[in-house]
Amino acid sequence: MEIEPITTQKTPESSETTDPKNPPLLTASISLSLSSILPTHFFTPSKTTQLFSPKNVKIPPQITSALSTLSLSSSTLSQPKLFSKKSSSSASPLQNPLSLNPRLPSDPSNGAAARRATIVWFRNDLRVHDNECLTTANNESMSVLPVYCFDPRDYGKSSSGFDKTGPFRASFVVESVTDLRKSLRARGSDLVVRVGKPETVLVEMAKAVGADALYVHREVSKGEAKAEGKIEAAMKEEGIEVKYFWGSTLYHLEDLPFELKGMPTNYGGFREKVQGLKVRDTVAALDQLKGLPSRGDVEAGEIPSLVELGLNPNATLSQDGKPSVNGSLVGGETEAMQRLQKFAAECKVQPPKSKDTNSIYGANFSCKISPWLAMGCLSPRHMFDELKKTASRTISASNRKDGDDGMNWLMFELLWRDFFRFITAKYSLATKLVDATPATACTGALA
């Protein structure tokens, strides 16, 4: 900033006659030089000349003395960092599939950057432990609105006449959502439940509470990716940010030593590339959550029954009227944690696994935890951490040798689960950007 000397400007009339009661007005001319503050390459010369030409500003004589002592030097101003080496957003989901137009810093300590209200959309992540989406929303927002939608398109009959969601799975989902609501209420929050299309329900919720953003875990199937696209379009029209997280696999998507488009199409190649890759630490469950937004007065809503979802509840009963074997699987994070602890205790007392026995898996050669992993009631990383605590030797998801104990074998099976989710993400998230080639993998037992 350069300050020109103060000069007295006279009009033709004032040069002829001077009124002693109205002395001439003193003016000062101030020139603004942006080149000393912003890098010269930030603006093109033509636009710089047009937009930032010097301006004349009239200053009353009472403050001219103060201006005379003002001195600014470009050396005392630090040039702002306009571009970072690593962009936080990308037009291509292959380069950064977890972001969509981020516009606020992620540092929750910056009070000025705190969001007024954030919606957390629960899908296949029905838990509070190791839930980066929920925890981040809580840290970055003044209020949080957890929402779960029973999408009518997921229920009813398919074109072939079968139930899109059978009664056993639907019952498991209802129980998991019920358990999640209890956990959130115990932490000072709640779970808003609606039956409807998410692209409609969530936009209405966002308008009602004045939400700044929608936080959600990204999914991988074609139908789920299509639903995300509809949500993005609807939220974009309302100026609401959509921020994605990843929490469905043992290894984090951003930690893979290759881009998603370079995901190997066979399990052996995938296992070789992730050899020695470190599993991220789990995100601890918060003891207390931010309250619901005060604006909008949104009601929690009722969790639908099987009848309301168009299913026959008697289908989950055996012929004698008692719950069938499949019906004995109770959904929810609470049940998942109890089963994991029980399984870890059984693993601890089992002898090392030999070539000819799978005794640690029980009669059906399974840990029987898959349903809770599938619905996100249990985090694979939390499962990994809990089994490490009781392991008598070092366990790894990418190394397996004959003679390892059952826990190490289970980690090997979790890696199979990662492979299928990553290979699905490769094609569903970027169908138009990647030349599809068939994935090859032999059938393996999953956790």
UniProtKB/TrEMBL annotation:
Residues 83-110 have a biased composition (Low complexity). Residues 1-25, 83-111 are annotated as: Disordered. This is Blue-light photoreceptor PHR2. FAD binds at residues 366-370, 413-420. The gene is LOC110774719. Belongs to the DNA photolyase class-1 family. Pfam families: DNA_photolyase. It comes from the Eukaryota. GO terms for biological process: photoreactive repair. Residues 1-17 have a biased composition (Polar residues). Gene3D superfamilies: 1.25.40.80, HUPs. InterPro entries: Crypto/Photolyase_FAD-like_sf, Crypto/Photolyase_N_sf, Cryptochrome/DNA_photolyase_1, DNA_photolyase_N, Rossmann-like_a/b/a_fold. Its cofactor is FAD. Keywords: FAD, Flavoprotein. Residues 116-250 form the Photolyase/cryptochrome alpha/beta domain. It comes from Spinacia oleracea. SUPFAM superfamilies: Cryptochrome/photolyase FAD-binding domain, Cryptochrome/photolyase, N-terminal domain. GO terms for molecular function: deoxyribodipyrimidine photo-lyase activity; DNA binding; FAD binding. Binds 1 FAD per subunit.
